[in-house]
Amino acid sequence: MIYDLQKYSSSDVVDNIYQEPLKAKNLDVYLTTIKAMKPKAILVGTSPVFHGGRKTGIPFTDEYYVSNEDVSLLQQKDELGYAIINDDEEKNEPEKERVSGILWTGLENEMEHILLWNIFPFYVHEKGNYPMRRNITEKEGEEGFHFLELILKEFPSIQIILTTDDIVASIIRKHKELVKQYQIFHVGHPNRMAKDKFIVRIKKAVDFKQHILAAEELKEEERIMYEYRRRWADTDTKGNFYCRSLNKILPSSMSKY
Q1: Which of 2, 4, 34, 49 is nearest to 21 (CA)?
Q2: DSSP character for 243?
Q3: Tens digits of per-residue pLDDT, 143-196?
Q4: Are the C-beta atoms of 150 and 98 separated by less than 8 Å?
Q5: d(C-alpha 59, C-alpha 53), whole Å
Q6: Which ranges constitute the DSSP H helices of 89-239?
Q7: 3-state SS of 98-119?
Q8: How, if at all, do strands 183-186 and 160-163 pair?
Q9: Considering only CA atoms, which of 151, 197, 148 is closest in space to residue 172?
Q10: Which residues are CB-contacts of 122 (< 8 A; sequence separation ≥ 6)?
């Protein structure tokens, strides 16, 4: 699968990080390590972030956690071990990334049960502006789905798919064979909710002792979130509505803004 990843062509808006041997090796070590633990769930994001997976080759990690001896899972490695590239001579410490920190501090004890992945496993950026990460397109998501299929074949222990972004959830749910085979929950992105709520949602989706906990409750919560997202606003009998950002009641004439 990693050879397949390496064959994907880079472009002026996509950087195939796995054409760099060190990052491909890091991913190989990570997948080999966690496969032996038979994870029950896979957490699927969109694409690597600039200070995170782009630098390590491992989704939802950063230099700090890959090199931190206190993070047990990332220290269970083969004889080669993980490595990071110090591309900034003035930098004294390994770089941290926010979402990686949320996961590895909030769920470190459970991470051996969760495989980390991105629907599009390559770094995407604006044309002519390499550091400026952009959103993946639906076409890129569908192209990346091929690698998700390979991952799921490699990890028959997985029963649950957790998605962090709407586009990821949309792409996965289009493939009916996955919907039939796996429990699929949209847990949301930690950049768009409180850290504690994100951690609780993942723990709700996966019971690490009995595999699935309160699945029906989470499905209902997901349905309510969908209904909430699709409405512009609730109005009263006169058409007035509440604007969350302004914390005010506004007349219906303002709704077009």
Answers
A1: 2
A2: E
A3: 999 999 999 999 999 999 999 999 999 999 899 889 889 989 999 888 888 888
A4: no
A5: 5
A6: 98-106, 138-154, 166-174, 176-181, 195-205, 215-230
A7: HHHHHHHHHCHHHHHHEEEEEC
A8: parallel
A9: 148
A10: 8, 10, 14, 15, 16, 17, 18, 47, 48, 144
Q: How many CA atoms lie within 13 A of 106 on its CB side?
A: 18
What pTM does this model have?
A: 0.77
Contact 212, 183 (CB under 8 A): yes
DSSP per-residue letters across 59-72: TT--HHHHS-TT-S
**Beta-carbon neighbour count of residue 121 at 10 Å?**
23
Tell me the two tokens of residue 185: 């929950």
Locate 180 and state its tokens: 């039939």
The token pair at 199 is 């951690």
Q: Are 61 and 29 in contact (CB under 8 A)?
A: no
Q: How far is CA 80 from the centre of its chain?
A: 26
| DSSP letter for each residue of 17-84 | GGGSHHHHHHHHHHHHHHHTT--SEEEEESS--TTTHHHHSSTT--HHHHS-TT-SGGG---SS----
The CA distance from 32 to 200, in Å, is 28
Percent of the chain at pLDDT exceeding 70: 77
Q: How many residues does the chain have?
A: 257
Burial of 28 (0-12, 13-18, 19+ CB in 10 A): middle
Phi, psi of 116 (to 5 degrees): -100, 135
